[in-house]
Design goal:
The structure is a homodimer. Chain A has about 375 residues and is of the alpha/beta class. Helix content of chain A is about 45%, strand content about 15%. Chain A has two domains: about 10-180, Rossmann fold (3-Layer(aba) Sandwich); about 185-370, Dehydroquinate synthase-like, alpha domain (Up-down Bundle). Chain A has helices spanning about 55-65, 85-100, 115-125, 140-145, 185-200, 200-215, 220-240, 255-265, 270-290, 295-305, 320-330, 360-370; strands spanning about 10-15, 20-25, 45-50, 70-75, 105-110, 130-135, 150-155, 160-165, 170-175, 345, 350-355. In chain A, the strands form three sheets. In chain A, strands 1-2-9-6-5-3-4 form a seven-stranded mixed β-sheet, sandwiched between helices. The first copy, chain A, has a two-stranded antiparallel sheet with strand order 7-8. In chain A, α6 runs antiparallel to α7 (about 220-240). The longest helix of chain A is centred in the middle third of the chain and has 21 residues, at about 220-240. The interface between A and B is large, with 38 and 38 residues.
């Protein structure tokens, strides 16, 4: 996709020693061969995409890579969180082995969070590790999932339960591709952008509130700033705690409730970002009930989530014991320890903390936040 | 299993910075609670074993761990290389999630190389990584596969194609368990012990030749020395090249031919160590044809492999083009690059190198070494 945008290309650097890499943010990047200079040398590359994104962008990426590799292969996965599973992952290994790809082969993840997570996990495992590049095509993937090296597939009993910490060698955020994003996907991405405000940067939250209209209208300069600032905050957190020994958990604000919603409704009913949006409202309500923030802050966050086009009322996950079902699902969250759920909470504006809460209080919050 | 052996417990240390760990070698270790002191704290442990080993040792390990964890779970896999696949791996994840195991849960691999490789890979992937302990019950696993952090499962198109470099937190080599090992498994372990001589330590090769009878008779002091010296050599190599950027590949001496045999016959027909034994004969013959060693050295190694009870003649893998089939299978070896097979060869006694060879020469060697 050619760009007429006057945007300058920007870089955010993830500093992880020998696993460091740049996030490149700009217009017209995806189809430009220059974007892919100086990657690890290899004879083969494999583009992994899905049947929604591939028709739009796979050919442009294929052509941009053609000069860099002897063979550029493609594997197209079925679209959607419901396919973030082992049989679908196996399609990537099948393609690699059928074409004789060796352990220098570079994988390119062309798609949203699901494609990125699966391609990254395949790269982590194929011959015990090959390089991969993230080419995120959703706003959510550009500001969150493509950055930081979390890769995974789902298990029937829990989301992202099987995976690896495995860093890409480069992330390419082409802002042009956001123009073709369905509105629902745009809103889902805004959820992860909004997230960075309450946990880390209240000035950024102010900016998002002032510019939510421009973001929804996909104004390139607004998108560029939102993507860059989000990546900067994420880079700073990941740089301090790559494997989530502590601090990094704050990036999961809204995710504990959100994962329960996604899993309880069946993957693919709500988008991940929708679960996170609603989950942030629930987690901030819990923070308020614990005395960490005031009601005005909850209302402010709720209003912004709603303006972003996201759900703010939790779905019922059980006709008989809705709160009990939420609790049951949240106990398999990866942050849980010995069956105790660990919530990411807002500990005063711009500050996050991880702690547990009594089941009784969590039940109250769920009852207050659900339909 | 109580031990009457007077053997002192010994340690070999794998030096990998924050991923360092000890290999503990001795008698009576498996059932001793003291063996498992000071592991990472956790509320749950999961013993992974197979239906051959579990009846012999799972209860002793369970009892030894009982005091260290709130719950000690077990999952018993079907035995054999044929089950080193995803559906079997999934049994481990199912058990962990069904029992609410969190990301501090410690996995214990109780078995041979297959159990160790699968448990290690499950530990690498479960919630993106939990600690695991190797409790190898075969000689092969004690001297090779349990040490160094290579984990994997097989793919229908190639052995160990999907896996991770993931280090255990401790390796427990209880020499007592070798007394129950079937003779064929003992010989398979001797293949990996013999391997360390030609690639790294000719004095050790001399010692093995002088003590092969004692090893086959399972004399504890001979086994103790063989295990310790093998682990020392492996530790030195892995400490210099954890992820096999170069040097570590020498540990695959005999494995390129051996993997082709294993895969060509169907996993489980020949034991891994049998493939390696025969593969070392073939690789040393190739070394000789390339002028790197003399015929006397090939004959010497062949005689020792044979005395160890291992096959020294390669099986026919195709009725029409046997050498062609070997070549085809070897091209999917992980060391291959851009379709070129990389052989580990003996470059003078006690010294290994990695290089390619012409198909014509490799065909000659295969024809000379097969039935």
């Amino acid at each position: 996709m050619a760009s007429n945008s006057p945007l300058a290309t920007q870089q955010v650097f993830i500093d992880l020693g020998e696993r460091s890499y740049p996030i490149i943010i700009g217009a017209g990047l995806l189809g430009d061969p220059g974007t892919y200079l100086n990657l690890p040398a290899a004879s083969s590359a494999l583009i992994v995409s899905n049947d929604t994104v591939a028709p739009l962008y796979a050919q442009a990426l294929q052509q941009a890579l053609q000069g860099h590799y002897n063979q550029v292969l493609q594997v197209i996965l079925p679209d959607g969180e419901a396919h973030k599973d082992w049989p679908t992952l196996q399609l990537i290994f099948d393609a690699l082995l059928a074409k004789g790809c060796d352990r220098k082969t570079v994988l390119f993840a062309l798609g949203g969070g699901v494609v990125g997570d699966m391609t990254g996990f395949a790269a982590a495992c194929y011959m015990r590790g090959v390089p991969f590049v993230q080419v995120p095509t959703t706003l959510l993937a550009q500001v969150d999932s493509s950055v930081g090296g979390k890769t995974a597939i789902n298990h029937p009993l829990g989301k992202n339960m099987v995976g690896a910490f495995y860093q890409p060698v480069r992330v390419i955020c082409d802002l042009d591709v956001l123009q073709t994003l369905p509105p629902r996907e745009l809103s889902a991405g805004l959820a992860e952008i909004i997230k960075y405000g309450p946990i880390a940067d209240m000035a950024f939250l102010d900016w998002i509130e002032a510019n939510i209209g421009a973001l929804l209208a996909r104004e390139p300069t607004a998108l560029a700033h939102a993507v860059r600032r989000s990546c900067e905050i994420k880079a700073a957190v990941v740089g301090q705690d790559e494997r989530e020994a502590g601090l990094r958990a704050i990036l999961n604000f809204g995710h504990t409730f959100g994962h329960a919603i996604e899993s309880g409704l069946g993957y693919g009913q709500w988008l991940h970002g929708e679960g996170v949006g609603c989950g942030m409202v629930m987690a901030s309500r819990l923070s308020q009930r614990l005395g960490l923030i005031d009601t005005a802050f909850v209302d402010r966050l709720r209003a912004l989530v709603q303006r972003a086009g996201l759900p703010v009322v939790g779905p019922r996950l059980s006709a008989t014991d809705n709160a009990g079902r939420y609790l049951e699902l949240m106990r398999v969250d990866k942050k849980a320890e010995a069956g105790e759920i660990r919530f990411v909470l807002i500990n005063g504006p711009g500050n996050a903390t991880v702690r547990s809460a009594s089941d009784a209080l969590v039940r109250e919050v769920i009852d207050a936040c659900c339909e």
